[in-house]
Hints:
Layout: H1 2-6, H2 12-23, H3 28-37, H4 43-69, H5 98-113, H6 115-134, H7 140-160, E1 173-174, E2 186-190, H8 202-208, E3 213-216, H9 223-239, H10 244-251, E4 262-267, H11 269-282, E5 286-290, H12 296-301, H13 306-315, E6 318-330, E7 333-339, E8 342-346, H14 348-362, H15 364-378, E9 382-386, E10 389-400, E11 403-404, E12 412-413, E13 421-427, H16 433-442, E14 452-457, E15 459-472, E16 475-494, H17 516-519
Parallel strand pairs: 2-3, 2-4, 4-5
Antiparallel strand pairs: 1-6, 6-7, 6-16, 8-10, 8-15, 9-10, 9-15, 10-13, 11-12, 13-14, 15-16
Helix pairs in contact: 2-6, 3-4, 4-5, 4-7, 5-6, 5-7, 6-7, 9-10, 9-11, 14-15, 15-16
Amino acid sequence: MSRAVSRIPESVVDRGMLRLTRSANTGGLWLAVAAALAVKPGPPRRAALRGVIALGGSSFVVNLVLKTLIPRRRPPAELMPLGRRLVTAPVSSSFPSGHSSNAAAFATAVALESPRTALAVAPVAAAVAYSRIHTGAHWPSDVLVGAGVGTAIALTTRRWWPIRESDEADAHVVHDAPILADGKGLLLLVNPRSGDSSYDPTDDIAQALPAAGLVRTEPGRDAVELLQEAVDAAVGASAEHTSVLAVGAAVGASAEHTSVLAVGAAGGDGTIAAAAAVAIRNNLPLVVIPAGTLNHFARDLGVYDLREVADATGAGEAVEVDIAAVEFDTADGPYQHHWINTASIGAYPELVRLREKWEDRWGKWPAFAAALVVTLRRAEPIHIRLDDRWHDMWFLFIGNGPYHPHGAVPAFRSRLDEGLLDVRWLRADVRFSRTRAVIALMLAAIGHSRVYGERQMHELTVTSRTPVAVAADGEVVGIATTFDFSVAGRIPTYRRDEDNPRWENRPRPHHRRPLAWLTDRRR
Length: 523
Protein backbone atom coordinates (compact mmCIF):
# COMPACT_ATOMS: atom_id res chain seq x y z
CA MET A 1 0.00 0.00 0.00
CA SER A 2 2.86 2.39 0.77
CA ARG A 3 4.19 2.00 -2.78
CA ALA A 4 0.71 2.58 -4.20
CA VAL A 5 0.43 5.78 -2.16
CA SER A 6 3.87 6.90 -3.34
CA ARG A 7 2.67 6.76 -6.94
CA ILE A 8 -0.19 9.20 -6.31
CA PRO A 9 0.60 12.42 -8.22
CA GLU A 10 1.75 15.34 -6.11
CA SER A 11 -0.93 17.95 -5.36
CA VAL A 12 -2.12 20.47 -2.78
CA VAL A 13 -3.34 17.49 -0.76
CA ASP A 14 0.28 16.78 0.16
CA ARG A 15 0.62 20.12 1.91
CA GLY A 16 -2.67 19.58 3.75
CA MET A 17 -1.58 16.14 4.92
CA LEU A 18 1.71 17.51 6.21
CA ARG A 19 -0.05 20.22 8.17
CA LEU A 20 -2.63 17.79 9.53
CA THR A 21 -0.10 15.22 10.68
CA ARG A 22 2.05 17.91 12.36
CA SER A 23 -1.00 19.34 14.14
CA ALA A 24 -1.57 15.96 15.76
CA ASN A 25 1.95 15.78 17.22
CA THR A 26 1.82 15.01 20.98
CA GLY A 27 -1.98 15.02 20.75
CA GLY A 28 -2.17 18.78 20.22
CA LEU A 29 -4.99 18.60 17.68
CA TRP A 30 -7.16 16.47 19.97
CA LEU A 31 -6.53 18.64 23.00
CA ALA A 32 -7.71 21.63 20.97
CA VAL A 33 -10.84 19.75 19.87
CA ALA A 34 -11.47 18.71 23.48
CA ALA A 35 -11.18 22.32 24.63
CA ALA A 36 -13.77 23.35 22.05
CA LEU A 37 -16.15 20.55 23.03
CA ALA A 38 -15.78 21.29 26.74
CA VAL A 39 -17.37 24.70 26.26
CA LYS A 40 -20.80 23.08 25.88
CA PRO A 41 -22.18 21.26 28.97
CA GLY A 42 -23.68 17.80 28.75
CA PRO A 43 -22.60 15.08 26.28
CA PRO A 44 -20.04 17.26 24.42
CA ARG A 45 -18.24 18.10 27.66
CA ARG A 46 -18.30 14.48 28.80
CA ALA A 47 -17.06 13.46 25.36
CA ALA A 48 -14.15 15.88 25.69
CA LEU A 49 -13.18 14.53 29.09
CA ARG A 50 -13.45 10.89 28.07
CA GLY A 51 -11.48 11.71 24.92
CA VAL A 52 -8.64 13.28 26.91
CA ILE A 53 -8.55 10.29 29.27
CA ALA A 54 -8.39 7.89 26.32
CA LEU A 55 -5.75 10.08 24.69
CA GLY A 56 -3.56 9.88 27.78
CA GLY A 57 -3.95 6.11 27.96
CA SER A 58 -3.12 5.76 24.29
CA SER A 59 0.04 7.86 24.55
CA PHE A 60 1.24 5.87 27.55
CA VAL A 61 0.58 2.42 26.10
CA VAL A 62 1.93 3.13 22.61
CA ASN A 63 4.85 5.46 23.24
CA LEU A 64 6.14 4.14 26.55
CA VAL A 65 5.27 0.46 26.28
CA LEU A 66 4.70 -0.91 22.78
CA LYS A 67 7.29 1.17 20.92
CA THR A 68 9.86 0.21 23.55
CA LEU A 69 9.07 -3.49 23.35
CA ILE A 70 8.64 -3.74 19.55
CA PRO A 71 11.37 -1.88 17.61
CA ARG A 72 10.72 -1.43 13.89
CA ARG A 73 12.35 0.66 11.19
CA ARG A 74 10.42 3.49 9.58
CA PRO A 75 9.72 3.38 5.82
CA PRO A 76 12.75 4.59 3.83
CA ALA A 77 12.64 8.32 3.08
CA GLU A 78 13.08 7.79 -0.67
CA LEU A 79 9.80 5.84 -0.77
CA MET A 80 7.80 9.08 -0.89
CA PRO A 81 8.27 12.14 -3.14
CA LEU A 82 10.32 14.91 -1.57
CA GLY A 83 7.38 17.33 -1.26
CA ARG A 84 5.43 14.79 0.73
CA ARG A 85 8.04 13.89 3.35
CA LEU A 86 8.24 15.20 6.89
CA VAL A 87 11.01 17.75 7.38
CA THR A 88 12.13 16.02 10.56
CA ALA A 89 11.73 12.27 10.36
CA PRO A 90 10.63 10.51 13.59
CA VAL A 91 13.32 8.43 15.28
CA SER A 92 11.15 6.25 17.53
CA SER A 93 9.97 2.77 16.61
CA SER A 94 7.57 2.70 13.70
CA PHE A 95 5.30 0.13 15.35
CA PRO A 96 2.58 0.97 16.19
CA SER A 97 1.57 4.43 15.01
CA GLY A 98 1.07 6.76 17.96
CA HIS A 99 -0.79 9.32 15.85
CA SER A 100 -3.25 6.66 14.65
CA SER A 101 -3.72 5.30 18.14
CA ASN A 102 -4.40 8.75 19.58
CA ALA A 103 -6.81 9.60 16.76
CA ALA A 104 -8.78 6.38 17.16
CA ALA A 105 -8.78 6.62 20.95
CA PHE A 106 -10.13 10.16 20.94
CA ALA A 107 -12.75 9.56 18.23
CA THR A 108 -14.00 6.35 19.85
CA ALA A 109 -14.22 7.98 23.27
CA VAL A 110 -16.20 10.86 21.81
CA ALA A 111 -18.56 8.40 20.10
CA LEU A 112 -19.28 6.69 23.42
CA GLU A 113 -20.60 9.93 24.89
CA SER A 114 -21.88 11.89 21.89
CA PRO A 115 -22.45 9.96 18.65
CA ARG A 116 -23.49 13.11 16.82
CA THR A 117 -20.23 14.83 17.69
CA ALA A 118 -18.31 11.74 16.63
CA LEU A 119 -19.68 12.10 13.10
CA ALA A 120 -17.59 15.25 12.81
CA VAL A 121 -14.55 13.96 14.71
CA ALA A 122 -14.24 10.53 13.04
CA PRO A 123 -13.36 11.80 9.52
CA VAL A 124 -10.63 13.99 10.98
CA ALA A 125 -9.28 11.02 12.94
CA ALA A 126 -9.29 8.86 9.81
CA ALA A 127 -7.47 11.59 7.89
CA VAL A 128 -4.80 11.85 10.60
CA ALA A 129 -4.28 8.09 10.48
CA TYR A 130 -3.98 8.10 6.69
CA SER A 131 -1.61 11.09 6.79
CA ARG A 132 0.99 8.89 8.51
CA ILE A 133 1.08 6.68 5.42
CA HIS A 134 0.80 9.57 2.96
CA THR A 135 3.82 11.33 4.45
CA GLY A 136 5.89 8.15 4.70
CA ALA A 137 6.06 8.20 8.50
CA HIS A 138 4.57 4.71 8.95
CA TRP A 139 3.85 1.43 7.27
CA PRO A 140 0.13 0.67 6.78
CA SER A 141 0.34 -2.12 9.36
CA ASP A 142 1.62 0.40 11.92
CA VAL A 143 -1.44 2.54 11.31
CA LEU A 144 -3.92 -0.34 11.44
CA VAL A 145 -2.54 -1.75 14.68
CA GLY A 146 -2.27 1.71 16.20
CA ALA A 147 -5.91 2.43 15.39
CA GLY A 148 -6.89 -0.89 16.94
CA VAL A 149 -4.94 -0.16 20.11
CA GLY A 150 -6.48 3.30 20.42
CA THR A 151 -9.99 1.96 19.93
CA ALA A 152 -9.44 -0.72 22.56
CA ILE A 153 -8.11 1.82 25.06
CA ALA A 154 -11.13 4.08 24.53
CA LEU A 155 -13.51 1.17 25.05
CA THR A 156 -11.60 0.21 28.19
CA THR A 157 -12.51 3.56 29.76
CA ARG A 158 -16.00 2.11 30.25
CA ARG A 159 -14.51 -0.02 33.01
CA TRP A 160 -13.88 3.10 35.09
CA TRP A 161 -16.58 5.29 33.62
CA PRO A 162 -19.50 3.08 32.51
CA ILE A 163 -21.84 3.91 29.67
CA ARG A 164 -25.47 3.15 30.23
CA GLU A 165 -26.58 0.81 27.46
CA SER A 166 -30.35 1.20 27.80
CA ASP A 167 -32.77 4.08 28.04
CA GLU A 168 -34.38 2.97 31.29
CA ALA A 169 -34.33 0.16 33.81
CA ASP A 170 -36.51 -2.89 33.25
CA ALA A 171 -39.55 -3.56 35.43
CA HIS A 172 -42.69 -5.67 35.30
CA VAL A 173 -45.51 -4.02 33.39
CA VAL A 174 -48.69 -3.15 35.28
CA HIS A 175 -51.77 -3.84 33.16
CA ASP A 176 -54.45 -2.40 35.44
CA ALA A 177 -53.10 1.05 36.34
CA PRO A 178 -55.89 3.65 36.52
CA ILE A 179 -56.28 5.92 33.49
CA LEU A 180 -55.87 9.51 34.66
CA ALA A 181 -57.36 11.48 31.77
CA ASP A 182 -55.97 15.03 31.97
CA GLY A 183 -54.72 14.09 35.45
CA LYS A 184 -58.18 13.37 36.86
CA GLY A 185 -57.83 11.51 40.15
CA LEU A 186 -54.21 12.62 40.63
CA LEU A 187 -52.91 14.57 43.62
CA LEU A 188 -49.52 16.01 42.78
CA LEU A 189 -46.95 17.46 45.18
CA VAL A 190 -45.10 20.31 43.44
CA ASN A 191 -41.79 21.62 44.77
CA PRO A 192 -41.13 24.96 43.03
CA ARG A 193 -37.71 25.19 44.71
CA SER A 194 -36.32 22.05 43.04
CA GLY A 195 -34.00 22.30 40.07
CA ASP A 196 -33.73 25.65 38.32
CA SER A 197 -34.50 28.33 40.90
CA SER A 198 -35.79 30.65 38.15
CA TYR A 199 -38.41 28.17 36.92
CA ASP A 200 -41.65 27.20 38.64
CA PRO A 201 -43.24 24.20 36.86
CA THR A 202 -46.69 24.71 38.40
CA ASP A 203 -48.26 26.51 35.42
CA ASP A 204 -46.89 24.02 32.89
CA ILE A 205 -48.17 21.10 34.97
CA ALA A 206 -51.60 22.71 35.31
CA GLN A 207 -51.74 23.09 31.53
CA ALA A 208 -50.60 19.52 30.80
CA LEU A 209 -52.72 17.91 33.55
CA PRO A 210 -55.62 20.34 34.02
CA ALA A 211 -57.72 17.96 36.14
CA ALA A 212 -54.95 17.14 38.63
CA GLY A 213 -54.92 18.51 42.16
CA LEU A 214 -51.70 20.42 42.82
CA VAL A 215 -50.26 20.68 46.33
CA ARG A 216 -47.29 23.01 46.64
CA THR A 217 -44.59 22.32 49.19
CA GLU A 218 -44.26 24.78 52.06
CA PRO A 219 -41.05 25.84 53.83
CA GLY A 220 -40.78 24.14 57.20
CA ARG A 221 -43.54 21.62 56.44
CA ASP A 222 -42.83 17.92 56.06
CA ALA A 223 -43.62 17.01 52.45
CA VAL A 224 -44.98 13.57 53.38
CA GLU A 225 -47.39 15.03 55.93
CA LEU A 226 -48.48 17.75 53.51
CA LEU A 227 -49.37 15.31 50.74
CA GLN A 228 -50.96 12.85 53.18
CA GLU A 229 -53.21 15.60 54.52
CA ALA A 230 -54.29 16.38 50.97
CA VAL A 231 -55.09 12.72 50.34
CA ASP A 232 -57.06 12.44 53.59
CA ALA A 233 -58.99 15.61 52.80
CA ALA A 234 -59.81 14.48 49.26
CA VAL A 235 -60.84 10.99 50.35
CA GLY A 236 -62.94 12.38 53.18
CA ALA A 237 -64.65 14.83 50.86
CA SER A 238 -65.35 12.07 48.36
CA ALA A 239 -66.88 9.90 51.07
CA GLU A 240 -69.20 12.74 52.03
CA HIS A 241 -70.13 13.34 48.37
CA THR A 242 -68.65 16.81 48.61
CA SER A 243 -67.38 18.68 45.61
CA VAL A 244 -63.61 18.58 45.51
CA LEU A 245 -63.73 22.18 44.46
CA ALA A 246 -64.04 22.85 48.18
CA VAL A 247 -61.32 20.33 48.88
CA GLY A 248 -59.17 22.11 46.33
CA ALA A 249 -59.47 25.30 48.31
CA ALA A 250 -58.42 23.42 51.44
CA VAL A 251 -55.40 21.65 49.94
CA GLY A 252 -54.41 23.93 47.08
CA ALA A 253 -55.87 21.71 44.37
CA SER A 254 -56.36 23.24 40.96
CA ALA A 255 -59.38 21.21 39.81
CA GLU A 256 -62.20 18.98 40.94
CA HIS A 257 -61.77 15.33 41.95
CA THR A 258 -64.20 12.63 42.84
CA SER A 259 -61.53 10.33 44.34
CA VAL A 260 -57.78 9.95 44.64
CA LEU A 261 -56.57 7.38 42.12
CA ALA A 262 -52.85 8.22 42.27
CA VAL A 263 -50.35 10.52 43.93
CA GLY A 264 -47.18 11.97 42.52
CA ALA A 265 -44.57 14.66 42.74
CA ALA A 266 -42.82 17.22 40.59
CA GLY A 267 -39.38 17.93 41.95
CA GLY A 268 -36.09 16.28 42.78
CA ASP A 269 -35.47 12.86 44.27
CA GLY A 270 -36.31 14.01 47.80
CA THR A 271 -39.73 15.26 46.71
CA ILE A 272 -40.34 12.10 44.67
CA ALA A 273 -39.44 9.98 47.72
CA ALA A 274 -42.01 11.88 49.81
CA ALA A 275 -44.72 11.10 47.27
CA ALA A 276 -43.57 7.47 47.11
CA ALA A 277 -43.98 7.21 50.89
CA VAL A 278 -47.57 8.42 50.62
CA ALA A 279 -48.22 6.13 47.66
CA ILE A 280 -47.04 2.99 49.45
CA ARG A 281 -48.89 3.88 52.66
CA ASN A 282 -52.16 4.36 50.79
CA ASN A 283 -51.66 1.62 48.19
CA LEU A 284 -51.79 4.13 45.34
CA PRO A 285 -49.86 4.36 42.05
CA LEU A 286 -47.07 6.91 41.76
CA VAL A 287 -46.58 9.65 39.16
CA VAL A 288 -43.07 11.05 38.70
CA ILE A 289 -42.39 14.41 37.04
CA PRO A 290 -38.64 15.14 36.85
CA ALA A 291 -38.22 18.75 37.97
CA GLY A 292 -35.06 18.53 40.06
CA THR A 293 -31.41 19.05 39.26
CA LEU A 294 -30.22 15.48 38.65
CA ASN A 295 -33.43 13.39 38.70
CA HIS A 296 -31.67 10.08 39.33
CA PHE A 297 -34.86 8.11 39.98
CA ALA A 298 -36.68 9.55 36.97
CA ARG A 299 -33.73 8.68 34.71
CA ASP A 300 -33.65 5.08 35.96
CA LEU A 301 -37.43 4.92 35.60
CA GLY A 302 -37.27 6.32 32.07
CA VAL A 303 -39.39 9.45 32.49
CA TYR A 304 -37.80 12.54 31.01
CA ASP A 305 -40.38 15.27 30.54
CA LEU A 306 -43.92 16.37 31.30
CA ARG A 307 -45.29 15.23 27.96
CA GLU A 308 -44.24 11.64 28.67
CA VAL A 309 -46.01 11.85 32.03
CA ALA A 310 -49.21 13.10 30.39
CA ASP A 311 -48.99 10.32 27.80
CA ALA A 312 -48.43 7.56 30.37
CA THR A 313 -51.11 8.70 32.82
CA GLY A 314 -53.62 9.27 30.03
CA ALA A 315 -53.05 5.76 28.68
CA GLY A 316 -52.72 4.00 32.05
CA GLU A 317 -49.21 2.71 31.28
CA ALA A 318 -47.11 1.81 34.34
CA VAL A 319 -44.47 -0.53 35.74
CA GLU A 320 -43.81 -1.96 39.21
CA VAL A 321 -41.10 -0.22 41.23
CA ASP A 322 -39.54 -1.14 44.59
CA ILE A 323 -39.63 1.38 47.43
CA ALA A 324 -37.13 0.94 50.28
CA ALA A 325 -37.37 1.99 53.92
CA VAL A 326 -35.14 2.55 56.92
CA GLU A 327 -36.49 2.28 60.47
CA PHE A 328 -34.86 3.59 63.63
CA ASP A 329 -35.78 4.91 67.06
CA THR A 330 -36.08 8.61 67.82
CA ALA A 331 -36.96 10.56 70.95
CA ASP A 332 -40.59 10.47 69.78
CA GLY A 333 -40.58 6.72 69.18
CA PRO A 334 -39.99 4.44 66.15
CA TYR A 335 -39.64 6.25 62.84
CA GLN A 336 -39.81 4.92 59.28
CA HIS A 337 -38.44 6.80 56.28
CA HIS A 338 -39.03 5.66 52.70
CA TRP A 339 -36.43 6.20 50.00
CA ILE A 340 -36.13 5.49 46.29
CA ASN A 341 -32.43 5.56 45.33
CA THR A 342 -29.75 5.19 47.98
CA ALA A 343 -29.15 5.39 51.71
CA SER A 344 -25.82 5.65 53.47
CA ILE A 345 -23.99 5.92 56.77
CA GLY A 346 -20.62 7.57 57.26
CA ALA A 347 -18.77 9.72 54.74
CA TYR A 348 -20.78 8.69 51.68
CA PRO A 349 -23.25 11.64 51.75
CA GLU A 350 -20.34 14.09 51.58
CA LEU A 351 -18.79 12.06 48.77
CA VAL A 352 -22.05 12.23 46.80
CA ARG A 353 -22.38 15.97 47.44
CA LEU A 354 -18.93 16.65 46.02
CA ARG A 355 -19.41 14.26 43.11
CA GLU A 356 -22.69 15.90 42.09
CA LYS A 357 -21.09 19.33 42.43
CA TRP A 358 -18.32 18.41 39.99
CA GLU A 359 -19.82 15.80 37.66
CA ASP A 360 -21.46 18.26 35.23
CA ARG A 361 -18.02 19.70 34.50
CA TRP A 362 -15.90 16.53 34.67
CA GLY A 363 -18.23 13.56 34.25
CA LYS A 364 -19.38 11.06 36.88
CA TRP A 365 -16.28 8.87 37.19
CA PRO A 366 -13.63 11.63 37.34
CA ALA A 367 -15.83 13.58 39.75
CA PHE A 368 -16.27 10.46 41.90
CA ALA A 369 -12.52 9.83 41.98
CA ALA A 370 -11.77 13.41 43.04
CA ALA A 371 -14.59 13.38 45.59
CA LEU A 372 -13.34 10.09 47.03
CA VAL A 373 -9.85 11.50 47.59
CA VAL A 374 -11.18 14.66 49.26
CA THR A 375 -13.77 12.80 51.36
CA LEU A 376 -11.42 10.10 52.63
CA ARG A 377 -8.83 12.70 53.57
CA ARG A 378 -11.37 14.43 55.82
CA ALA A 379 -13.35 11.41 57.05
CA GLU A 380 -13.32 9.69 60.42
CA PRO A 381 -13.97 5.92 60.63
CA ILE A 382 -17.32 4.66 61.92
CA HIS A 383 -17.73 1.49 63.99
CA ILE A 384 -20.54 -0.68 62.64
CA ARG A 385 -21.86 -4.14 63.44
CA LEU A 386 -22.63 -6.00 60.24
CA ASP A 387 -23.26 -9.76 59.96
CA ASP A 388 -22.69 -10.19 63.72
CA ARG A 389 -19.20 -8.69 63.44
CA TRP A 390 -17.87 -5.25 64.28
CA HIS A 391 -16.15 -3.39 61.45
CA ASP A 392 -14.38 -0.06 61.09
CA MET A 393 -15.65 1.57 57.90
CA TRP A 394 -15.29 4.81 56.04
CA PHE A 395 -18.84 4.51 54.77
CA LEU A 396 -21.71 2.11 54.16
CA PHE A 397 -23.82 2.40 50.98
CA ILE A 398 -27.26 0.80 50.56
CA GLY A 399 -28.95 0.92 47.16
CA ASN A 400 -32.64 0.35 46.49
CA GLY A 401 -32.02 -2.45 44.02
CA PRO A 402 -28.74 -3.67 42.49
CA TYR A 403 -26.64 -0.89 41.00
CA HIS A 404 -24.23 -1.21 38.11
CA PRO A 405 -21.41 -1.67 37.58
CA HIS A 406 -20.52 -4.13 40.32
CA GLY A 407 -17.25 -3.52 42.10
CA ALA A 408 -17.07 0.06 40.88
CA VAL A 409 -18.83 3.41 41.13
CA PRO A 410 -22.61 2.79 41.54
CA ALA A 411 -24.00 4.47 38.44
CA PHE A 412 -27.42 3.10 37.46
CA ARG A 413 -29.90 0.26 37.89
CA SER A 414 -30.88 -2.23 35.20
CA ARG A 415 -34.07 -3.29 37.03
CA LEU A 416 -36.35 -1.53 39.49
CA ASP A 417 -38.20 -4.54 40.89
CA GLU A 418 -35.52 -6.95 42.13
CA GLY A 419 -36.66 -6.76 45.77
CA LEU A 420 -33.01 -6.53 46.89
CA LEU A 421 -30.75 -4.06 48.66
CA ASP A 422 -27.33 -3.38 47.15
CA VAL A 423 -24.96 -3.08 50.14
CA ARG A 424 -21.40 -1.79 49.64
CA TRP A 425 -18.80 -0.57 52.10
CA LEU A 426 -15.25 0.69 52.33
CA ARG A 427 -13.22 -0.74 55.20
CA ALA A 428 -11.13 1.41 57.51
CA ASP A 429 -9.54 -1.47 59.46
CA VAL A 430 -7.06 -2.37 56.71
CA ARG A 431 -3.61 -0.79 56.70
CA PHE A 432 -3.36 2.18 54.31
CA SER A 433 -7.01 1.61 53.43
CA ARG A 434 -7.57 5.10 52.03
CA THR A 435 -4.54 4.97 49.76
CA ARG A 436 -5.36 1.44 48.66
CA ALA A 437 -8.95 2.41 47.89
CA VAL A 438 -7.91 5.33 45.68
CA ILE A 439 -5.29 3.26 43.82
CA ALA A 440 -7.73 0.38 43.33
CA LEU A 441 -10.32 2.77 41.96
CA MET A 442 -7.82 4.26 39.52
CA LEU A 443 -6.91 0.76 38.33
CA ALA A 444 -10.57 -0.27 38.04
CA ALA A 445 -9.87 -2.99 40.59
CA ILE A 446 -11.82 -1.73 43.60
CA GLY A 447 -14.09 -4.77 43.40
CA HIS A 448 -11.09 -7.04 44.03
CA SER A 449 -9.54 -4.97 46.82
CA ARG A 450 -9.53 -6.03 50.47
CA VAL A 451 -10.79 -2.60 51.46
CA TYR A 452 -14.06 -3.04 49.54
CA GLY A 453 -17.10 -5.16 50.35
CA GLU A 454 -20.31 -5.75 48.42
CA ARG A 455 -23.41 -7.86 48.99
CA GLN A 456 -27.05 -8.06 47.95
CA MET A 457 -29.73 -8.90 50.51
CA HIS A 458 -33.43 -8.50 51.21
CA GLU A 459 -32.98 -6.69 54.53
CA LEU A 460 -30.17 -5.37 56.68
CA THR A 461 -29.73 -4.37 60.32
CA VAL A 462 -26.86 -2.04 61.13
CA THR A 463 -25.72 -1.22 64.67
CA SER A 464 -23.23 1.47 65.65
CA ARG A 465 -21.42 1.86 68.97
CA THR A 466 -22.17 5.57 68.93
CA PRO A 467 -25.03 7.53 67.33
CA VAL A 468 -24.43 8.12 63.62
CA ALA A 469 -26.39 9.90 60.92
CA VAL A 470 -28.20 8.09 58.15
CA ALA A 471 -28.80 9.80 54.82
CA ALA A 472 -31.38 8.79 52.24
CA ASP A 473 -31.58 10.14 48.70
CA GLY A 474 -28.91 12.69 49.56
CA GLU A 475 -30.54 14.10 52.71
CA VAL A 476 -29.80 13.31 56.36
CA VAL A 477 -32.99 11.82 57.81
CA GLY A 478 -32.00 10.89 61.35
CA ILE A 479 -29.40 9.94 63.96
CA ALA A 480 -29.47 6.65 65.87
CA THR A 481 -27.44 3.59 66.83
CA THR A 482 -29.54 0.90 65.13
CA PHE A 483 -31.06 0.99 61.66
CA ASP A 484 -33.25 -1.57 59.90
CA PHE A 485 -33.13 -1.35 56.10
CA SER A 486 -35.59 -3.23 53.90
CA VAL A 487 -37.57 -3.17 50.68
CA ALA A 488 -40.87 -1.84 51.98
CA GLY A 489 -42.96 -2.80 48.99
CA ARG A 490 -43.66 -2.38 45.31
CA ILE A 491 -45.95 0.19 43.73
CA PRO A 492 -47.17 0.86 40.19
CA THR A 493 -45.35 3.86 38.74
CA TYR A 494 -46.42 5.51 35.50
CA ARG A 495 -44.04 5.20 32.55
CA ARG A 496 -44.81 5.47 28.87
CA ASP A 497 -44.54 2.18 26.96
CA GLU A 498 -42.11 3.00 24.17
CA ASP A 499 -43.17 -0.12 22.26
CA ASN A 500 -46.68 1.27 21.93
CA PRO A 501 -47.14 2.42 18.29
CA ARG A 502 -49.18 5.27 19.66
CA TRP A 503 -45.96 7.04 20.68
CA GLU A 504 -44.04 6.31 17.48
CA ASN A 505 -43.69 9.98 16.57
CA ARG A 506 -42.90 11.20 20.08
CA PRO A 507 -39.13 11.89 20.25
CA ARG A 508 -37.53 11.52 23.67
CA PRO A 509 -35.25 14.37 24.83
CA HIS A 510 -32.56 12.34 26.53
CA HIS A 511 -29.27 10.53 26.08
CA ARG A 512 -29.77 7.34 24.10
CA ARG A 513 -27.51 4.38 23.45
CA PRO A 514 -24.43 5.21 21.36
CA LEU A 515 -25.41 5.36 17.67
CA ALA A 516 -28.94 4.13 18.46
CA TRP A 517 -30.39 7.40 17.18
CA LEU A 518 -29.14 6.49 13.69
CA THR A 519 -31.28 3.37 13.51
CA ASP A 520 -34.12 3.98 15.95
CA ARG A 521 -37.24 4.58 13.88
CA ARG A 522 -38.80 6.55 16.73
CA ARG A 523 -36.29 9.28 15.92
